[in-house]
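Running co-folding for S-adenosylmethionine.
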Amino acid sequence: MHIKTYGCQMNVYDSARIAELLGGQGYQTVDDPVEADLVILNTCHIRDKAAEKVYSELGRLERIRRDRGRSGAKQFLIAVAGCVAQAEGVELVERAPFVDVVVGPQSYHRLPQMLADSFQSHAARVDTEFPAESKFDHLPDIHAPPGAAGAFLTVQEGCDRFCSFCVVPYTRGAEYSRPVAAVLAEARGYAKDGACEITLLGQNVNAYHGDGDDGTPWGLARLIEAVAAIDGIARVRYTTSHPADMDDALIRAHGEVAAMMPYLHLPVQAGSDAILAAMNRRHTADVYRRIVERLRCARADLALSSDFIVGFPGETDADFRATLRLVEEVGFAQAYSFKYSPRPGTPAAALPQVPEEVKRERLAQLQDLLDRQQRAFNVAFLGRTVPVLFDRPGNRPGQLLGRTPYMQVVHASADATLMGAIKAVEIDGVGPKSLAGRLSRQAAA
Ligand code: SAM
Ligand code: SF4
């Protein structure tokens, strides 16, 4: 089996769970789709470009299947999972009739049966329901891959906020929080497997309100404290948050929980109140500024990241300048920015659109400012010694990559045995998007 993952960390998490689920049925993972008897595309529908990539990959897979047919080799099944599957369902099979299985993000626990049925007959199987039972109750225990430094852990899915540009409420369904006991059991498992960093995931993770064993709903702050208290967990992060769900307890936790990393991805989308209202974000630019102030009071060295959309319907030059102003005032350590992409079925798609050329120019201007801020943030680390969690081999032999508490990527010459360890690294170089350093002679951080 070969799984190709598109989009956000929640898809990365889902792919790992699909691999475990099908691993239990005897499927083994291979790196090259040409060698596989089953290819699963775990897809993203957030922007048009992301969805179109899936169709071009499907074209490539169809060619592999045709070649396979000619050589009389074993069967080659093609499955589409994730948000494109959910959003397009039967339409997807009409456009790509050679696809065998289409399964939405809430029903992938049913994949083993769907695949077994598919091996029996040629009719495509489509399951894009939102089953009443939670898929989490039907999935096997997951493990961190051997040697993994950190693990993603989905605690919340779906979204009830209905921002007018966004497909998530339609593809991932209504907001759902996993019970506290299930989350903590999974986190303990990762710690036992050797992972020392846990990233709690949700489409709107700070709306988390899972049932605790004490019969009361827990907020995200309380959950983070409990995860941070697990033996072996040195770092906790969470993503992605909505500004209107940043409650007092969570802001306080940034200052009080030692394992909570001083980095927060808090999407604002735009700096103009008129555009924020049209986006149905339910907060103003000033509310965002105040949340940032309070967060920085709780944790002075907090590094901020955000998402921005330019060229939302109705965005004027003055609205766009308000976004630039907000970026200048807040100062971001890094950020993601996108041209508005009309998504079928969302309210904003029906509004008069900003010309593509204007979107392109605004995006370039915003990205230039964000890149300058990221570089300035990184340059300030030259000469500093920071704790780095090594999590990947580097491109060169004898090199490892890791992350600082502020999420910067660091390249350093280090022995492979340091994978998964947190070590003090002296920063001696700054690239466009990453840092370089050497292991400090000091003891481990
Ligand atoms: N839940 C998060 C929040 O409240 O901001 C965002 C989740 S969404 C998966 C990730 C990002 O994709 C959004 O923050 C937004 O910037 C971007 N995005 C979503 N829909 C978009 C669209 N139609 N066009 C362009 N960018 C979009
Ligand atoms: Fe989409 Fe985030 Fe808005 Fe929910 S809060 S609708 S996930 S952008």
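Result summary
Residues 8, 46-47, 165-166, 168, 203-204, 240, 242, 267, 269, 307, 309, 338, 340-341, 343 surround S-adenosylmethionine (ligand 1) (CB under 6 Å).
The chain has a mean pLDDT of 94.
Job closed.
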